[in-house]
Amino acid sequence: MIEVNNVHKSFGDAHILKGISTTFENGKTSLVIGQSGSGKTVFLKCLLGLFTPEEGVISYDGKIYSELTGAEKRNLRAEMGMVFQGSALFDSMTIAENVMFPLKMFTKQSKSEMEDRVNFVLKRVNLENAHHKMPSEASGGMQKRVAIARAIVNNPKYLFCDEPNSGLDPKTAMVIDNLIQEITDEYNITTVINSHDMNSVMEIGEKIVFLKDGHKAWEGSNETIFKTDNDAVTNFVYSSDLFKKVRKMYIEENQ
Amino acid sequence: MTYLHNIGAYFLMIAEMFRKPTKWSVMRTLILKDIDDLIIGSLGIVAFISFFVGGVVTIQTALNISNPLIPKYLVGFATRQSVILEFAPTFISIIMAGKVGSFITSSIGTMRVTEQIDALEVMGINALNYLVFPKFIALMLYPFVISIAMFLGVLGGMAACVYGGFSTLEDYITGVQMDFIPFHIIYAFIKTFVFAFLLATIPSFYGFYMKGGALEVGKASTTSFVWTSVMIILLNYILTQMLLS
Predict the structure, then answer these.
(1) Beta-bridge partners for A14
(2) A-chain residues within 8 Å CB-CB of B217?
(3) How far apart are CA A198 and CA A205, in angstroms?
(4) Which residues of A touch B116 (CB under 8 A)?
(5) Beta-carbon separation of A77 and B122 below 8 A
(6) Which of A50, A85, A91 sits opposite B122 (nearest CB)?
């Protein structure tokens, strides 16, 4: 479980995160949503340890990150998988080499053991025949799936995804969402996803944290988001006519 | 204040580069790749420039020695001194700041822009050791490039001298061998090692710490070339003062 308590982060005079507290539970897919500029990516980078909060505590299964030694931090990071917004695949390596990279760096497995594991995870993300392609030869959806494969190849305890659906068509976005959800359930991973894709919110948001101007404005689930009368959430989530209708139908069905 | 901040950040980067080394089996591959990219990949342009600039140095020297009392073998002597002391170590290093330096800055800068460096850091990898250290080790072979530049510079001078009719082959070779001081070679290689260090670290610094997008990668490459050149010229002066005066 990841516990976040009163986290503040500033860059110069810009106060980006203003006292965020929440928890992300094991085996659940949690979504952090909010408008562009609300502090989602900064928050995720604080969780990853890429940014150090000025104030507040982030703990992983009871271990407070800021109190860990350098070696403990590195060990913890080896238990994290990350899917970046732009996939962040190493463009000098093939898809198989990208996926094998964490194994090469952190395990003492033989080459054949690593190849078996790479084959397994690439099959898991439906990319059996893409081993020798370069990232530049892969489509956006394929790149995202490779990024997911690389993130899970080392059996991480925590999986972070920064807008995994951005730039993808609705069908591919749904495939990616389902894949993340299945992997989270299958391996009991603590998954945190930054998103402003409302389909993801409705489909896989077992827990949803809504950020507005660096504050946590609301938290709940994809069930309770239909019922909330929080203005900030309804203005954001139900800004389109389609989602207004979906909400209306949901409320009518459940009355 | 920005300059002071950058100088401090540069030295911190160098210290960090040696910490928490990457697994040797991975590092070995990276070093070999960087030797291929930075050293082997530069041989063609270095050979071409050295040969022809050596020729130009010879022609300029020969044309400026109009006094019949000055022996013709001085052309070979002047060419050797120019090539070994300045042209090969310093002039080639400035060219390498453009070729190798901009390659390093743009490749690391692109990795920063596309979050590949963030990906390394999230995995718990020391990104500076992973990216900069292999380049530093690869450029320790830079004296090999400079040796070739020295040889081809003197050879180009010989070709220009003989085929241009400025003196005989015997005179040129006599001049090249005349008053040879072995310390000049040591001096040239000391400079070469210092310049190799600058060529590996300054462009890496500008690539690693750049912010922004594709446009900023271009700007960072230009800035890294300017500062690498400035530092090469400055340290060339200081080292010459220390070692030869």
Answers:
(1) A11
(2) none
(3) 10
(4) 88-91
(5) yes
(6) A50
pTM listed for this prediction: 0.84
> Is residue B177 a part of any domain in this protein?
yes
What is the per-residue pLDDT across B8-40, written as a single tens digit (0 to 9) for each? Answer: 999 999 999 998 888 888 899 999 999 999 999
Spatial contact of B52 and B149, defined as CB atoms under 8 Å apart: no
User: What is the H or E stretch that residue A208 is in?
Assistant: strand A207-212
**3-class SS at A163?**
coil
With a CB cutoff of 8 Å and minimum separation 6, the contacts of B36 are none
Question: What does the alpha-carbon distance between residue A191 and residue A184 come to, in Å, rounded to a whole number?
Answer: 6
Kindly determine whether residue B122 and residue A48, on different chains, have CB atoms separated by under 8 Å: yes
Q: Residue A255: what pLDDT?
A: 67
A171 vs B213 pLDDT, higher one: B213
In which order are the strands placed within the sheet that holds A55-60?
A14-24, A2-11, A55-60, A63-64
- At residue A196, the pLDDT reads 80
In a domain, B1, yes or no: no
Residue A219: which H helix or E strand, with range? Answer: strand A215-220
B170 CB within 8 Å of a chain A CB? no
Count structural domains, chain B.
1
Strand partners, A15: A10
DSSP secondary structure of B137-150: HHGGGHHHHHHHHH
> Is the CB of B124 less than 8 angstroms away from the CB of A48?
no
CB pairs under 8 A between A and B: 52
Q: Which residues of B touch A70 (CB under 8 A)?
A: 20
Which stretches of chain A score pLDDT less than 50?
none
In a domain, B10, yes or no: no
A167 Cα to chain B: minimum distance (Å): 15
Q: Is B36 on the interface with A (CB under 8 A)?
A: no
Tell whether B6 is covered by a domain. no
Contact B26 A86 (CB under 8 A): no
Residue listed under structure tokens 């996926």: A99
Is 3.30.830.10 the CATH classification of the domain at A2-221?
A: no
Structural domain for B227, as ranges: 27-244
Torsional sign, CA A89, B121, B6, B12: negative
